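Field reference: sequence -> structure
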Amino acid sequence: MPDPAGVRDRLTARLADRSRAFEQLFTEYFDSLGGALDAPSAGRFTPECLHLLRELSLRGGKRIRVMILHEAARLVTDGPVPGLDHAALSLELLHSHGLIHDDLIDDSPTRRGGPSTYYAYRERFPDRPRTALGLTVLAGDLALALSLRVLLDADTAPPVRQAMIETQSRAAAETFLGQIADLERDVTDELPDTEVIDEVAEYKSARYSLLAPLRLGLLAAGDRPERHDRELGRYARLVGICAQMRDDYLDLFGDGEVMGKPTGTDIRDGKRSYTVAALLSSADGLTGAERTLLETALGDPACGAGTIDAIREAAEACGAAGRLRARMRDHAEQAAVVAGGWRAHWRSEAVTFFELLPHWSIERTH
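Structure field:
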């Protein structure tokens, strides 16, 4: 997409400033959290849990939900908007909940360049696996509860505050349903079709990472997002699919050093990702030997780097990688068109961010 008059550079600078401001806000939130919780005074487990939650939450991250939230409010006004700080904290706490439980479900040892919460507890309790498991579940549950609790203190009118809590509650429930569908997708013998994978991407990530911050930003700014639910939902679905396709693509074709994790994780975990589906469903794709290689590697945690390299080369040679890139571009262009239509009822300058966002989502390298 063209970059008129350096709009991208100005947006990037503003988003960087906002990210720094949020990191300070998040740090201050955790600094005050211990004294704000009515927790049992005895024992070490609660402070340890809060420490692990804090450490994971502050360990980087793109903070894209925070950016979408603020830019959604700018669709309505460029003035100060009460409630955005509390909504931003809520979004990132819900994300922390998702990271903790995802790493438990996937048995992931690392997250954002450090140990996952689950593995931190496994190291803490090497001879008590059920204790480690239980504390990990509870740490994630605490993050979810805090994500809703923080909205109770939002400096907005009571009806707006109630609507924000309902929005986050709905987003959390839909995310859990998406995670359930994700697990079902990966244990069935049949290869899921594209619509199934798209629906999992929408429920598991797009609704809480894109649609919820859009709704929260508009609510805080005094708009009524339900009036635009169809177009907001279509935009969120398209961008969410873009982002998930990019994640799946990078898992095989990305640079492990840039991403901070090895490539081929989805194949070793047996995930029916966009990349795997593209390879297995292509009639003119893999040779018989290449298909057997992929099917043997799928779900094999001991699958070596050499096998992953061979699958990557086969995917490029048969055109599956190119088809994935083309589908990402097509979805990004569709999403940008949807956003462009928002100029009919929102501030044109603020719409530009949402036109650019889908393209950013398929250009990232990690």
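Note: Residues 243 and 361 are 6 Å apart (CA to CA).
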